[in-house]
Amino acid sequence: MRNRLIQICILSFFLGIASERTFAKQKPTDKNTYRVQAGDSWWGIAKKLGTTPKELAAINGRTEKEGLYQNELLRTGGNTTASKSEAQKTAPKSKPNSPLPGYEKIAKPYSELTYDPHKGVRYSRENSGWVRAALPGKVVHIDYMDGYENYIILEHENGWYSVYGNLERVQVTEGQTLVAKERLGTLIKDKGLYFQVNHNKSAINPSLFLQQGS
């Protein structure tokens, strides 16, 4: 089962650009999503769902000042006790750390927009020269891919995986066990870190992942 999840995580990463457009065309089956209709607004959707525009936008890694697009798929986050309980069970035991040692702006955010899906975030490259593990974990895959250069996949507790791309030099080996904030490698000059997070089979907004834990 573990090997299968690793393969899914790798497949999710490798097929990111090609498959996202295919997946985006599929109708959502998750009751915790909402498909934007013509004339919808953050305020109107939030009112239907019993939440606030600010909270709804935050769940989707956005702000209520950003525009909505027809047929866009939004996460609603769910509002049942069961969903909150499940989130508590699967959340990391410790709060994840930023994959970069210093603050960097996000150049391209996580997105489920049908016209421009993006399964991770890409940070700008202003100050950071090296990358670190967001949580304790094990190095399960190291490889190279055009567009993402050298990348590393770490496996964490409770079914979490994290991906680090655009590395010039890798300083860890497959099978190595790491502590939080341990150095993984250095970034390519003038390229920002690509950071993706999966929980089992699903890609998760990295910004939300970094807010989890206790």
TrEMBL record:
<feature type="region of interest" description="Disordered">
    <location>
        <begin position="79"/>
        <end position="103"/>
    </location>
</feature>
<dbReference type="Pfam" id="PF01476">
    <property type="entry name" value="LysM"/>
</dbReference>
<protein>
    <submittedName>
        <fullName>Peptidase M23</fullName>
    </submittedName>
</protein>
<dbReference type="InterPro" id="IPR011055">
    <property type="entry name" value="Dup_hybrid_motif"/>
</dbReference>
<dbReference type="InterPro" id="IPR018392">
    <property type="entry name" value="LysM"/>
</dbReference>
<dbReference type="InterPro" id="IPR036779">
    <property type="entry name" value="LysM_dom_sf"/>
</dbReference>
<feature type="domain" description="LysM">
    <location>
        <begin position="32"/>
        <end position="76"/>
    </location>
</feature>
<dbReference type="InterPro" id="IPR050570">
    <property type="entry name" value="Cell_wall_metabolism_enzyme"/>
</dbReference>
<dbReference type="Pfam" id="PF01551">
    <property type="entry name" value="Peptidase_M23"/>
</dbReference>
<feature type="signal peptide">
    <location>
        <begin position="1"/>
        <end position="24"/>
    </location>
</feature>
<keyword id="KW-0732">Signal</keyword>
<dbReference type="InterPro" id="IPR016047">
    <property type="entry name" value="M23ase_b-sheet_dom"/>
</dbReference>
